[in-house]
Amino acid sequence: MDPKTWLSAEELASVTRRSDLKGGFLVLSQWVQVLGLFYLMAVFPSLTTWLLGTVLLGSRLLGFGILVHECGHRTLFRTPALNDFVGRWLVAPPTFNNMRAYMRGHLEHHRLAGTAEDPDLPNYRDYPISRARLWRKLRRDLTGQTGWRTLQGVGRSLANYSRLSPEARGALGRAVLMNAAVFLALLLAGVPALYLTWFLAYIFVLPLVSRIRQVAEHGAVPDLFSGDARHNTRSVRSNWLMRALFSPHGVNWHLEHHLMPSVPIYHLGRLHRLLTTKGAYEGMHFETSYPRLLAAVSHP
Asked: Which helix (H) or strand (E) holds 141?
């Protein structure tokens, strides 16, 4: 389906318009949320606060990845240069992300989605799966096994720093500097132990919320090998709490992103509403809860 055939010229212009103000707000709000969580954990120290803060920090780490994705598509800001700068220096480093390397693979996913050559296919090809198998996957995330493997990869990169490509060295160096800056800020604030929550969120929470987001986008869709994104990709009409945990910054509108990758993430909700009003989604079912979605992509 070509969504352009459903939209007027004015509507098309409105959903594809990029805004430095809106992009800057998303980046600023992302960092403000991180700082706010650290502040709350510092002012109200308790095991409960730290556990809740760690879970929410994990979702904020997912938020950094989503903003990397947007900058990589060059849709968060108006100019390629600003997208590149913010992506490489402000949102990729917290999670040791290499934006350029990530986007090389991700653009292939867009080009080949709906085909057997989709490079991301191994992540969701087997769905629906048994609930026992789904639980094993989630348990590996919850117990830190997935995150530990990711951390080991970072360690190997650090150990082989001199042999990395200039691009990889730059991304890794920025990541080390950013994480050092986070620790130094907490040290100067007199709460260096809070860096542990940042570390634990990376190991135990980020892999879990990332997997759930990924499964929600393409797992057990009506037809994974359809050329129509309405059949091979899913959006979730989630509430504010679900969005806070599993789909920050509007990433729940993944179908709309595949229909029109040129639409900035802050306009995807509007695109969804427009296409719904015009009947483009007639007969389609949209989940409204991630727990229900996990039940729908698994079987006894």
From this structure: helix 131-142
Maximum distance among all Cα pairs of the chain, rounded to whole angstroms: 57
The pLDDT tens digits of the residues spanning 4-44 come to 899 999 999 999 999 999 999 999 999 999 999 999 999 99
Separation of alpha carbons 267 and 271, rounded Å: 6
Pair 252, 59: CB distance under 8 Å: no
Burial track 182-199 (b if 16+ CB lie within 10 A, e otherwise): beeebeeeebeebbebbb
Rounded-to-integer distance, Cα 222 and Cα 260, Å: 20
Q: List the structure tokens of 264.
A: 């900035």
Q: Give the CA dihedral 20, 21, 23, 29, nearest 10 degrees.
A: 150
In the Cβ-directed half-sphere of 121, how many Cα atoms lie within 13 Å? Answer: 13
* R_g (Cα) of the chain, nearest Å: 19
Domain count, the chain: 1
Three-class secondary structure assignment of 27-71: HHHHHHHHHHHHHHHHHCCCHHHHHHHHHHHHHHHHHHHHHHHHH
Determine if the pTM surpasses 0.85.
Answer: yes
pLDDT, mean of residues 50-70: 97
Q: Name the token pair of 133.
A: 């198998």
How confident is the model over 150-209, as pLDDT tens digits?
999 999 999 999 999 999 999 999 999 999 999 999 999 999 999 999 999 999 999 999
pLDDT tens-digit readout, 92-109: 999 999 999 999 999 999
pLDDT in the model for residue 104: 95
- Give me 35's structure tokens: 């700082």
Domain range for 16 is 3-299
